[in-house]
Design goal:
Number of strands: 53
Strand content: 25-35%
Number of helices: 22
Structural class: alpha+beta
Radius of gyration: 49 Å
Shape: elongated
Length: 1119
């Protein structure tokens, strides 16, 4: 058993590790070996304190397929301190690459150091890295012991013990002893044997051997390491010979920068020799011929010296031009006693022939410039001679055409140089203007000029001198809905800021939390709200509070650096922090006052799957006494009873969909939207009212800034909702009876529906276009006026701003009908539907179907088979199916084809060449089916929208009309009351009213739409979509005959339909129709998986009608 467990564990390990082993095996790999660090002298592991850093490494790399990878110097990177650079060269040795980095001479501090070498592939992915340590030898050798004693009459015994160390903290590291000698009068008299890091020995030397002469002199032991660092210890003697001492030799440009490069052009230089001589200098000269092979006279050049005993000798008028490789400069110094000192220095001067390249031009604030004090920065790639001369000029022509180019303040760096220009003013421009900043001229220290063809020559900045503008700051407790903060609340702080150019970031918007005992704190988020055009910056503060008033200010800086304090705009976040205190109070009556409750159409209760909405107003009744302040009044736990037989004690739960306070008024008064759930129609047939009771909870204090008292006071409300009789509460059985009696007519309808199903589908999007374009929102405003007498609210009080917002918002969202949970925003209600946008079905219902209902009771009953009925309808249009109309089958649908020579086909009821709304067929001879198809392909059919004159329109309207249109309009009235209140609240508060429209859309969708959608065939998604837009654009504006006849009621359905078309003519174009229909076709209601198909819908309607009212309706025909 144990072995099986072990085997299972092994297999798990194997399965888990195989991907990593495989990935490692297949990845590119590299190797770095034998990394050596040395100075100019090439001694591994040690460099001098004034030396160049030379690094050698052997590297190799392989692709994931095993092939060798070519390695370039740029693939091998050196990191040393702040220096990160590529190697100088890489040589392929067959087995790998021998890569070398040769650094510039520089000064080092004594100590131990580590360099890091990294190997990258061409995609800049690191393959390997290795470290190498070295020591900087900053300490000369130590003379532990040096003694000179007389030995006989003409000799001395010399003992020495010497040691070399790199530095005090370098341990045993050393460069090694190079030499030691006995000097007398500064001259070497005898060489001593030294090696390694320490040596000790003794010897005997004669006076003649050492050259000791009469006089005062010194015998000195001079010990030197391999970096020419010397230590001397002397025993005093009288001597009269001394040599000049060379301290340093430097080759610099005319700006005093040490030269480490050569150029295609002569480089003017100076040479400076620093030396010491006690007895006085006689002559100093130098040989600089290795620096300039193009110009003679450099072999022996006399220096100009000054000072003493420390001298500075210099040579001017020199140039570096085509120097020798490893150029050696030699100098000689002679003192007044004839002692001569020679000194040499080897220079490496690689050729720099590449011009610098501008990589980027930028400013501290990104792409934006302010009015004053801007700084422009250019990043320049220059890996050769450098840019230390700052020979870089910026063109400011776009700021001032008369201004000269400006030289850089400085250029610093290595490899990548940063050149900067500060104090640049851009005032005089308009906010949002473009400003082009470009490089005028740029040269490196070797004289190579930047070519504007390569790199980034210019940069376009945006002028922004306007600071953000604070519009509002709100402070509210998160999730409680109260208007004050308590000690345990999380403060939701929001700043509404206008910034039109550069924008703002959360880190640049700071709230002064000193009011809470904190420092300035940046925003958690700053997002742009497309609806308001403002940035909304949010903080959520949780922590300690101080009881009392809070006045918060905020600072904001845009991306261009323009800063504004909210106090400058006189905008502050204001609230109060209060405590909670245990105190039982009874300030309000137990029973709240309920305002007048509108009567509810009972049809809504059974027609809609979500029931119906009722608006109910509550007001707390004060018991008198001291003043008190209501922070919140919450209505909940509403229950209702229909008082049906044997169920008088049954109370069902009614949900509160939304609650609202009246703006600017005390919160002891509010109104709610109460959702009465769906009930069976027959069960409520005899019910006259609904009894409802609700619980009320009151959050309150003595004053707004006083402690909130707990527990909350409780109250209740009782009221009745009267039920009205709907127009279609009991559908006209006589109408249905006539349908049953006219079997021949039913068969004709059946044939028509079969033959014109595609026309029905074609008609549906036109109905949407009539109803859902932007101008219908202005129609909502007209509906407000028209229903004002019913609602008791003057809709005209809604500001024009509200109507504009309605129009703009619906233009964007009316097409989508998208799904999603509602969000409470600025006091708007949470939606009660998953369909959160307005629907096509309602508008078609509103515009067409009242007429549709009348039509079913009128013209459609009097068809060909009933001549007497036709006489009764003599004032109606010619009946459908009449022999008086040509092309009988098609004109029964009021559909006919135009002559191919005409421009508009006649689906309307009158072609483009007739003024009659009931086409008699004149001017359009009968055509064969083949001719009709060809004619349709080349003409523009139109639709007549009056269902009294078009059977096609009537068929489309059939299902919703039969189930009660008047009831739907009453539902819309109740929804519109709430919607208008929402708009007025938002307008008074100056808040966004977009959520009001979403509420309106959601309620209409739930209350109105499903019956209409149930007959839409999925064929609509596939055919004629593109054709719809073309037809509508061409014909919609020109095909409406007046329906508002003299003396007609202003808000009759006919007149309303006419006004809808007038609104279209006044307020909209149809350029976006195609996009709208495409979006409509993608709506979830058109998907067969989510909705009934046509046959299912028809079967459902017929079965429901048959089941519920079989006796009254008789047997329904099947279509």
């Amino acid at each position: 058993m144990k072995s099986k467990k072990e085997m299972a564990l092994f297999m798990c390990f194997l399965v888990l590790s195989i991907p990593f082993i495989s990935a490692n095996a297949m990845a590119s790999r590299g190797y770095i070996s034998d990394v050596q660090v040395s100075g100019e002298d090439g001694i591994a592991g040690t460099v001098a304190k004034s030396d160049s850093l030379n690094i050698n490494a052997t590297v190799s790399a392989f692709h994931d397929n095993g092939d060798r990878m070519e390695i370039l110097p740029s693939n091998v990177k050196l990191t040393f301190g702040t220096l990160t650079t590529g190697f100088t060269s890489c040589e392929d040795t067959g087995a790998g690459y021998y890569c070398t980095y040769k650094g510039q001479k520089r000064d080092f501090a004594g100590g131990s150091y580590t360099v890091n070498v990294k190997l990258y592939d061409p995609s800049n992915i690191r393959l390997a890295q290795a470290d190498a340590s070295f020591s900087v030898d900053s300490s000369p050798p130590r003379i532990l012991s040096f003694t000179v004693t007389r030995s006989g009459s003409n000799a001395v015994n010399i003992y020495y013990d010497v040691q070399d160390i790199a530095c005090a903290s370098c341990g045993s590291a050393c460069i090694g002893l190079d030499k030691a000698e006995i000097q007398i009068g500064g001259q070497s008299k005898k060489a001593l044997e030294v090696s390694g890091c320490s040596s000790q020995s003794s010897l005997t030397a004669s006076y003649s051997e050492l050259g000791i002469k009469d006089g005062s002199q010194e015998i000195c032991l001079v010990v030197q390491d391999k970096y020419q660092q010397k230590t001397t210890s002397c025993v005093s003697f009288e001597i009269d010979t001394a040599f000049p001492k060379i301290n340093s030799l430097m080759i610099t440009d005319l700006q005093g920068k040490e030269v480490h490069y050569s150029s295609l052009f002569p480089i003017p230089i100076r040479a400076v020799l620093n030396l010491s001589e006690e007895k006085g200098l006689a002559e100093v000269y130098g040989d600089f011929s290795a620096l300039n092979t193009m110009k003679p006279g450099y072999e022996r050049m006399i220096a100009s010296c000054n000072g003493g005993p420390d001298y500075s000798c210099s040579w001017s008028g020199l140039e570096i031009h085509n120097p020798k490789e490893n150029a050696v400069v030699r100098v000689t110094a002679k003192d007044s006693s004839g002692n001569e000192r020679n000194y040499s220095k080897t220079l490496q001067l690689p050729l720099d022939s590449e011009a610098p390249v501008v990589q980027s031009i930028k400013a501290p604030f990104g792409d934006f410039l302010r009015a004053k004090g801007n700084t422009i920065i250019a990043e320049v790639l220059e890996s050769g001679s450098g840019m230390s001369r700052a020979d870089a000029y910026l063109s400011l022509y776009s700021l001032n055409p008369n201004s000269a180019s400006r030289k850089a303040d400085n250029c610093t760096g290595q490899g990548t140089w940063i050149c900067s220009w500060s104090g640049i003013d851009a005032d005089g421009k308009n906010n949002g203007d473009s400003i082009t900043i470009s490089i005028d001229r740029l040269r490196d220290d070797a004289g190579n000029t930047y070519s504007q063809v390569s790199g980034q020559n210019s940069k376009v900045f945006i002028y922004d001198d306007k600071a953000p503008v604070f519009k509002n700051i709100t402070i509210a407790p998160l999730g409680t809905g109260l208007d004050v903060l308590t000690m345990s609340d999380i403060a939701d702080i929001r700043a509404y800021i206008s910034e039109n150019e550069s924008g703002i970031e959360p880190a640049s918007v700071l709230a002064d939390f000193s009011v809470f005992g904190r420092n300035w704190t940046s925003a958690d988020s700053c997002d742009f709200d497309n609806r308001t055009g403002l940035f909304v910056c949010i903080w959520q503060y949780s922590g300690q509070y101080k009881r009392g008033p809070v006045k918060l200010r905020i600072q904001a800086a845009d991306r261009a650096g323009n800063r504004k304090d909210s106090s400058e705009d006189r905008v502050f976040g204001v609230t109060s922090v209060v405590d909670t205190r245990q105190q039982v109070v009874d300030w309000w009556g137990d029973k709240a006052k309920v305002g007048s409750v509108p009567a509810l159409n009972r049809n809504f209760i059974w027609m809609s799957s979500v029931g119906a909405l009722e608006r109910v107003e509550f007001e707390l009744i004060s018991r008198g006494g001291a003043s008190r302040y209501v922070h919140a009044m919450d209505v909940s736990n509403c229950r209702g009873s229909f008082g049906r037989k044997n169920e008088s004690d049954r109370f069902d739960s009614f949900s509160v969909k939304a609650q609202y306070y009246y703006p600017g008024q005390s919160k002891h008064k509010k109104y709610i939207l109460l959702n009465i759930p769906q009930y069976d129609r027959k069960g409520i047939a005899d019910v006259t009212s609904i009894k409802v009771n609700c619980s009320i909870e009151i959050v309150q204090s003595a004053t707004k800034s006083s402690d909130i008292l707990t527990p909350n006071e409780k109250a209740y409300a009782e009221f009745e909702i009267p039920l009205m009789s709907g127009i279609f509460e009991a559908p006209d059985s006589a109408v249905i009876g006539k349908l049953n009696e006219k079997n021949a007519t039913i068969q004709t309808l059946n044939s028509l529906i079969t033959n014109i199903r595609w026309v029905t589908s074609f008609m549906t999007p036109l109905c949407k276009l009539v109803s859902t374009l932007r101008q219908i929102i202005s129609g909502v405003a007209l509906l407000m006026v028209g229903t004002s007498s019913l609602t008791g609210i003057n809709f005209l009080q809604a500001p024009g701003l509200a109507l504009t917002a309605v129009s703009d918002y619906f233009t964007t969202v009316i097409w989508r009908g998208g799904a999603g949970a509602g969000i409470s925003f600025f006091g708007a209600p949470v939606q009660v539907s998953t369909k959160n946008h307005i629907s096509l079905g309602y508008w078609c219902d509103l515009v067409l179907c009242e007429d549709c209902s009348n039509f079913w009771k009128g013209s459609i009953m009097y068809m060909v088979s009933d001549e007497n009925a036709r006489t009764k309808a003599k004032d109606s249009p010619k009946p459908f199916g009449s022999d008086e109309l040509d092309e009988k089958l098609f004109t029964q649908a009021y559909l006919k084809w135009a002559d191919p020579q005409k421009t508009i086909g006649d689906l309307w009821g009158g072609g483009s060449n007739t003024q009659s709304s009931n086409n008699t067929g004149s001017g359009s001879p009968a055509q064969s089916p083949e001719q009709r198809v060809r004619a349709f392909a080349s003409t523009k059919p139109s639709i007549f929208f009056d269902p009294k004159k078009s059977l096609l329109t009537a068929v489309i309207c059939y299902p919703p009309c039969l189930t009660g249109i008047e009831g739907k309009l009453q539902a819309y009235k109740q929804i519109l009351i709430t919607y208008n209140a929402c708009v007025n609240v938002a307008a008074v508060r100056g808040q966004d009213m977009g959520q009001c429209e979403e509420f309106l859309s959601a309620e209409i969708c739930q209350q109105i739409v499903w019956e209409f959608w149930s007959i839409i065939d999925s064929f609509l998604k596939k055919v004629f979509v593109n054709y719809v837009m073309y037809i509508t654009v061409q014909n919609l504006r020109n095909k409406v005959n007046s329906m508002c006849t003299a003396g007609s009621p202003q808000w009759s359905t006919n007149c309303l339909g006419q006004r809808v078309f007038e609104i279209i003519d006044l307020f909209t174009t149809l350029a976006g129709t195609m996009q709208a229909i495409n979006e409509l076709m993608n709506h979830e209601w058109f998907r067969q998986s989510d909705a009934q198909n046509q046959q299912q819908a028809e079967d459902h309607i017929n079965s429901e009608l048959d089941r519920k009212d079989k006796k009254g309706y008789g047997t329904m025909p099947k279509y």
